[in-house]
Amino acid sequence: MECRDRRADQSPRFGGVRLVLTADFPFSPDGKRVAFGSYNHMIHVVVCDDGTLTLAPILCRDKVRVVQYSANGAKLVAAARTLCIFDADSGNPIFTDRGGMEDWLALVWTGDGSQPIAAKRATVVIHDVASGERVRTWDAAAYCYWPISPHINSLALSPNGKYLAIQMAISETKLVTIADVATGQSVASFRHEKSARQPTLRGAH
């Protein structure tokens, strides 16, 4: 996915948008808007009161798999083969990470909205919005000691921002690891043989 300067024609209503792909539909922190990506290479931001689009759909070069708002609602991060961060009000791109041939499949924001944490395959990457640089990268496959590298399916950040829950899988075997965000070191792991829902961390301080 690569950000483009041009915009797609604006659809007048939410009901006119087709081919929705993203599994989650993040609300803006003020609860007035909801965002989603789609197979038609677009990011849509919709007004909850009347279903109209707040701006022309943001056109990308690939299927948009995950979209998330920053905590202050000022930015949107979108994940596919490329990781893009946009200004949530204008839709203008802030920076793009084009690294690799595999899709980014999971992401969360740090609590202060300054750093998105994204994952592809078994790699976790923390980006800095101001500079666009990768500030920390680690290989989550080291947590599981499997002969084949797993895929990271989902991420969840603790309320205090100190711990990251990472769900990985190879075939039917799943592993959820709790990692220290500052060091990337695993502090706990839980292995199971059946499907797990996306992890949610509650009550950590």
Detailed description of the structure:
This protein is mostly beta strands and 205 residues long. The protein has 2 domains: 18-98, Thrombin, subunit H; 102-195, Lipocalin, CATH 2.40.128. 0% of the residues lie in helices and 43% in strands. It contains no helices and 16 strands. The radius of gyration is 17 Å and the shape is globular.
Give the helix proportion (percent range): under 10%
Counting H and I runs of at least 4 residues, what is the number of helices? 0
Rg over CA atoms, rounded to whole Å, is: 17 Å
- The rounded distance between the terminal residues' Cα atoms is 36 Å
Let me know the number of strands. Answer: 16
Number of domains: 2
Main sheet? 4 strands, antiparallel
The CATH topology of the largest domain turns out to be Lipocalin
Could you tell me the mean pLDDT?
A: 77
Order of helical and strand elements? EEEEEEEEEEEEEEEE
The largest beta-sheet arranges its strands as: 1-4-3-2
The backbone outline, from C-alpha atoms, is globular
In percent, how much strand structure appears in the residues?
35-45%
Per CATH, the class of the largest domain reads: Mainly Beta
